[in-house]
Design brief:
Blueprint: E1 2-11, H1 17-33, E2 37-44, E3 49-56, H2 59-66, H3 69-81, E4 82-92, H4 100-110, E5 112-113, H5 121-125, E6 138-141, H6 150-162
Length: 167
């Protein structure tokens, strides 16, 4: 049984964006090498909100990454940088990632807010704005084990999602 994990962060000020960017780069590199990680997506939403979605082999793999040195080092900063932060995960048989509407639905139904120092009213009420998705504001994340074909996979996946489907 695979695990899908979705997180949503909203930074409270643009001044935290460079720090979040560098933290995300470190976490992404670590994620690509994490045992049990299968595939993921990153979404830069409107109004300083960011979504992540990942598929894990099992719950133990997901928890091991969550507790890893790189991820654990960033988490204390999230409590200061963000005014909204939530997570949800669920089990699935499907091998592919769900769409962002499904992630939003799951987050709205069962999302768990992080304790934050500066919480917004939406965070307190567990209200999550539907993500705005276009062809330029999200990317796939693939495991490092695809080193040789990784660039081709990125190009192919990102190329396919930009093309309109024609009958």
């Amino acid at each position: 049984m695979r695990i899908i994990s979705v997180t949503r962060l909203r930074i409270r000020s643009i001044r935290f964006l460079p720090r979040l960017y560098w933290a995300t780069r470190k976490i992404r590199r670590s994620l690509e090498k994490a045992p049990g990680f299968q595939v993921g997506k990153l979404l830069a939403d409107r109004n300083r909100a960011f979504w992540t979605m990942s598929v894990w082999k099992d719950i133990d793999s997901m928890r091991a990454f969550r507790d890893s040195r790189v991820h654990a080092a960033v988490m204390p900063n999230v409590t200061r940088w963000c005014d909204e932060a939530s997570v949800v995960h669920w089990e699935t048989e499907a091998a592919e990632l769900p769409n962002w509407d499904e992630a939003h639905r799951r987050m709205s139904e069962a999302g768990k807010p992080f304790p934050l120092k500066f919480q917004s009213a939406d965070h307190d009420a567990c209200r999550y704005k539907k993500p705005y998705v276009n062809k330029d504001n999200w990317r796939f994340v693939l495991p490092r084990k695809y080193v040789r074909i990784r660039t081709l996979l990125y190009r192919f996946l990102n190329h396919c999602r930009l093309r309109p489907i024609r009958n």
